[in-house]
């Protein structure tokens, strides 16, 4: 049972030796039609334990202690009825296992809804930036800092992975992922050329400015926007924001007029950092956050700081294993590292819609990975030919296999 | 039927065996043995010959996944392994004393193969040691006039290894259809 976004559940396996582990991985992918994929325990939505393992009891207790809200599926020859677990009798059948994952998905959805209700209630409380905390940043005692640091380290692994891929989405799916954009008809080639946005008019621009200021001052800082406070940790290159993707996507698309942004401010903080450590799932790697924010700000447009008629270059490949991989992003990156090209020529060379190129350029630009050729000599040099492998068919089949 | 290979290389403990395990369709053939030399400080067992896995394609074609032995005393095998190779996946352990030196060593060792094909670099153990950063790797590579994909990789996570191999394929031909 895949979730609403057609993403399989992520499951961690316990009590299985290597061969059983591999067999279960392949069983989930094959007969169970990708109901779940096996991942490391820290990235999992669901735990699956072989209850006939000699240390099954310890494994079960350990998992309940570490991740109490995570659904647990237990496989056993004999019936085991434990609270908050889903039992599957051995020998495991495809139908039973799929049903167990379906039940786990329901449990996860129920928990997520409950959390959202709680979050909405918290959101209704007025935001009161702690202006007095500005100069208290370095006043905390070494002991309390150390204790806090240790606590944060212990909690560190609760930071959930937020680089889920978007590249498998269909065109409609990706449009939904980007969110609605009124006023531009992307079927009209002329309108496409004018489909730009000014990052400074959006949350993206304010976050970028705040990051720059926090980095320059070397202090933890809180960006107050009239929405949810966003905390910047310049040394660990992390951002904390108590918002899920849906909320962030909605806010990313809102135009913030300069004369209406009086609520926007940046304040150094320390107490807020201590408070937010309770919610590790709110942490984002800065690059991951900016990339995603830029994708949702772009919605298929390009930043107006880019001259659409000039060629762009990519300084290096984005770290795609830790970013949202948008459709065709890897192809675009591979093409751009070969040499500069205009956005429209990329779309033409790869035979893809310009929106995909614009989204990529917007995200890479937010991370400072994209620039434009300035020298006249650069403009004169022709863009290098696209490599066409003689083994194209074979490579394509490998690609298809990797993407399942 | 042709023998197509993807080669996984890198120093001891970088995750070559695990990475092959992550994307192989069959339980990989491992040739690990208890480490008895300097590698023991890095891991209890090490690959003494090579690791081998298979990716089965829809048309019955098989892609052979070879992991080179991490110990340099087996480097005589590397040239033999690369014959017919599609490309190189270089895994680097970020907790090693000098990962840049490792990178230089392996890129030099496989330079002919890389110039004929391509390379993608995965940096493992970044959760244990965040320095050098991915950007630091790119700066080093710039000095070597190379612009390969460099990703943070957890070799146990299939998606990470899959994306790295995909980057290798697109480096060979960006025109491949998504």
- Under CATH, the topology of chain B can be stated as Rossmann fold
SS field, number of helical segments of chain B? 6
Q: How much is the radius of gyration of chain B in Å?
A: 15 Å
Radius of gyration of chain A: 24 Å
- Mean pLDDT across the residues of chain A is 78
Q: How is the largest sheet of chain B built, in terms of strand order?
A: 4-5-1-6-7-8
Measured distance between first and last alpha carbons of chain A = 16 Å
The pLDDT mean of chain B sits at 84
- Overall morphology of chain A: globular
Q: Major sheet of chain A: order of its strands?
A: 2-1-3-4-5
Describe this structure in words.
The complex is a heterodimer of chains A (404) and B (178). Chain A has three domains: 9-112, Response regulator (Rossmann fold); 131-158 and 196-294, no CATH class; 300-402. In chain A, 42% of the residues lie in helices and 13% in strands. Chain A has 15 helices and 14 strands. In chain A, strand 7 (221-224) and strand 8 (230-233) form a beta hairpin. The longest helix of chain A has 30 residues, at 94-123. Chain B has 178 residues and is α/β, with parallel strands linked by helices. In chain B, 32% of the residues lie in helices and 24% in strands. Chain B has helices at residues 16-23, 76-82, 99-109, 111-116, 134-143, 158-172; strands at residues 4-9, 32-34, 45-47, 51-56, 62-67, 85-93, 119-124, 149-152. Chain B is globular. Chains A and B meet through helix 1, helix 11 and helix 15 of A and helix 5, strand 8 and helix 6 of B.
